[in-house]
Amino acid sequence: MRTSGLPEAAFVSEQVNENTGYRFRVLSLPCRFLDQGSGACTVYAERPLICRTFPFYPEPLTGNVCLLPAQCGSQLDLLTTREPNTWSVDDYSSDVRAWLKKLWDEARARVDIAPKDGKEP
Description:
Layout: E1 12-16, E2 23-27, H1 49-52, E3 56-58, E4 65-67, H2 93-111
Antiparallel strand pairs: 1-2, 3-4
């Protein structure tokens, strides 16, 4: 991660899907950027997209954003109106779209599949 100066291998591990044999990377838990004493994120200003949108998760296969409420416990408050100093999933929509495009471009390149519209990325 750029901010930490650590190599990606320091906070990401590789796993293999037993059904497909495909390899994928996942964040190692507990997050190495979480200060265990205070519970604060030590790279908050430069945190990855997945952390910025938490507890929402952009589902790569559908493009839909899913809520992961089990991760929040009693910390989850769903507001009916936009309050000052809060955020919405819509605030990150362009970042999520760019992430999904990059993810699918990389996946297509690995299996040599052209985009649905037939145009090269």
